[in-house]
Design goal:
This protein is an alpha/beta fold. Helix content is 28%, strand content 27%. The protein has 2 domains: 190 residues, FAD/NAD(P)-binding domain, CATH 3.50.50; 109 residues, FAD/NAD(P)-binding domain (3-Layer(bba) Sandwich), CATH 3.50.50. It binds flavin-adenine dinucleotide. The site of flavin-adenine dinucleotide (FAD) has 39 residues, from helix 1, strand 2 and helix 7.
């Protein structure tokens, strides 16, 4: 086998796993397509001791640490993962290489699919935001909006209210129940009912939200819940269990039902922040090493017995 562990994806989850595994003296290759989810954001928040660091800087520091312990990192996509008998896997890389590995950790993240509102995608990670825990503090006490339309967005508006007194929820007419309406009004959350037609920008800042009936509601920032789509094609191809909502199934250490295949980070957990994804990578690495030690014991005993 070329490697003990192939880590697919070099974001917080994958690099954190690679760090623990290389420090456990495992031979590790990290293959990374280079598009971490938070790349459009200028700063990363909520990561103890690294709050406010540009996201790319965290990963650059992480790559240096992994390489410092002998880990290999290659830029590119893993296009195929197939079992190599009972002992491991073959992986095809986008540069044409084929490598073999005993175990594989898939940490490929997810895609954020944004609502199709003209002007919205251009402001993504600037003043169109998805996560109040990541960026709420930076827009505290400003005029905030929440783009509603799904049942979760009513609760989401209540959460965003934690960061500002002036919050407006945009919802299609007739969407809210009487209870939701009274809960929103009780916390002074404004309601704008109707369909949003576009996002207005002035001097490279969000200016307001224009409705289909031409009303314009001035806002400084708009919170938008994206649809999370896991990058889990490789897991599907390997036959990992996928639940009814489309997410790969794992245990608390990242183990899947397919022997030798592990998962960490956003690819199976849309709620994972950077620090959580890194934590999942670390937990998976410790479990993978323990499993490899178990296999090493078995082959050592077999070799020993054959000596007699
Ligand atoms: C705009 C924005 C801002 C955010 N801000 C914050 C914040 O301030 N604080 C915070 O804690 N969280 C923030 N998040 C969430 C954060 O992005 C995620 O928690 C984190 O990126 C998850 O790490 P991950 O390693 O699971 O996935 P990612 O960071 O997405 O890394 C996955 C990596 O795998 C690679 N990859 C995918 N497929 C393949 C393949 N087949 N072969 C090889 N490589 C592959 C990708 O290119 C990528 O580099 C933000 C998210 C967004 C969208």
């Amino acid at each position: 086998m070329d490697y003990d562990v192939l880590v697919v994806g070099g974001g917080a989850a994958g690099l954190s796993a690679a760090l623990v595994l290389t420090r456990a003296r495992r031979k590790v290759l990290v293959a990374d397509a280079g598009s971490p989810r938070n790349a459009p954001a200028s700063h990363m928040h909520g990561f103890l001791s690294r709050d406010g660091l540009p996201p790319a800087e965290l990963l650059s520091l992480g790559r240096k640490e992994v390489e410092g312990y002998g880990g290999e990192i290659t830029a590119g996509t893993v296009t195929e993962l197939v079992p190599a008998g009972s002992s491991g896997f073959w992986a095809l890389l986008s540069d044409g290489r084929r490598v073999s590995t005993r175990h594989v950790l898939v940490a490929t993240g997810l895609k954020d699919e944004l609502p199709d509102v003209p002007g919205l995608a251009d402001r993504w990670a600037r003043d169109v935001l998805h996560c109040p825990y990541c960026h709420g503090y930076e827009v505290r006490d400003q005029q905030l909006g929440v783009l509603g339309g799904s049942p979760e967005t009513v609760r989401y508006a209540q959460i965003v209210r934690q960061w500002a007194k002036d919050v407006v929820l945009f919802v299609p007419a007739g969407f809210l129940t009487t209870l939701q309406r009274s809960e929103l009004v009780a916390r002074s959350i404004g309601l704008v009912e109707g369909n949003v037609s576009r996002i207005l920008v002035e001097d490279d800042h969000l200016h307001g939200i224009e409705m289909e009936d031409n009303r314009v509601i001035l806002r400084d920032a708009l919170f938008v819940p994206p649809r999370f789509v896991p990058n889990n094609d490789l897991l599907v191809g390997l036959g990992c269990d996928i639940d009814e909502t489309g997410w790969a199934v794992k245990d608390g250490t990242g183990r899947t039902a397919v022997q030798g295949v592990w998962i960490a980070g956003n690819v199976a957990n849309p709620r994972a922040q950077v620090i959580t994804a890194a934590g999942e990578g670390s937990a998976a690495a410790i479990a993978i090493n323990a499993e490899l030690v178990g296999l090493d014991i078995r082959s050592a005993v077999k070799a020993f017995n054959m000596g007699f």
